[in-house]
């Protein structure tokens, strides 16, 4: 069963009076537990595709399925509820609330969850701060943490809802080389330990090197699908794939 399935998705934006087609006939599917990179140059449509998968945005046409449930026609409230339970987000600029401690930032996504008690919230926060190695920094505010530590807080915040999917938009862009490598290794370890699906929007070669699946996007279209076999990539180059099984057939 596919954790994400996208069928003939188009996304248009209005720029003044002009229509801009950000995505053109995107069809994809991929399985649970994948460590996948969506790669492409600036303006290629990779972040738009990530936002559609994350239910932050909706397609102009076409369908998107998360855990085999069609989310294309859901209301804003329904999508917010889906995000709060299923999808964690890691941002390039961390997006931590400066007035909150590391623990409070991690707890924040759970505050609207009536199904999670106060005691369970604390247990989850303590657990995931420990997973990312920041238990001793729980009371520190973001301005008291390094860039790498802030990104670790962001990872813990993404994981605290116990998502099936984590989306990361250029997660290494604001980190130095050594810290970026450490963060990627941490995310890979979490991916393997919890079978959590990680999907990255990136042009960073380090992220692509760690991925086991690759989707290359250019000018709003998929131009290649890749699967890592040991240290090498097997790429299937194409234009506008037509079948939902295209990614699997490239495997």
Commentary on this structure:
By secondary structure, the protein is an alpha/beta fold. It has one domain (2-250): P-loop containing nucleotide triphosphate hydrolases (Rossmann fold, 3-Layer(aba) Sandwich). 32% of the residues lie in helices and 31% in strands. Strand 9 and strand 10 (221-229) form a beta hairpin. The longest helix has 18 residues, at 177-194. The model is unreliable at 240-251 (pLDDT under 50).
CATH fold topology:
Rossmann fold
Count the helices. How many?
8
**Side-by-side strand order of the widest sheet:** 6-7-8-3-9-10-11
- Unreliable segments of 5+ consecutive residues: 240-251
Name the beta content range: 25-35%
CATH class: Alpha Beta
How many structural domains are formed by the residues? Answer: 1
User: Which class best fits the helix and strand makeup?
Assistant: alpha/beta
Rounded Rg: 18 Å
- Shape, please? globular
Spatial separation of the terminal alpha carbons: 15 Å
Give the name of the CATH architecture: 3-Layer(aba) Sandwich
SSE inventory with pairings:
Layout: E1 2-15, E2 18-31, E3 35-39, H1 46-53, E4 61-66, E5 69-70, H2 76-86, E6 87-90, H3 102-107, H4 118-131, H5 147-159, E7 165-169, H6 177-194, E8 197-202, H7 205-210, E9 213-218, E10 221-229, E11 232-237, H8 246-250
Helix pairs in contact: 4-5, 5-6
Overview features:
251 residues, alpha/beta, Rossmann fold, seven-stranded mixed sheet, four-stranded antiparallel sheet, 8 helices, globular
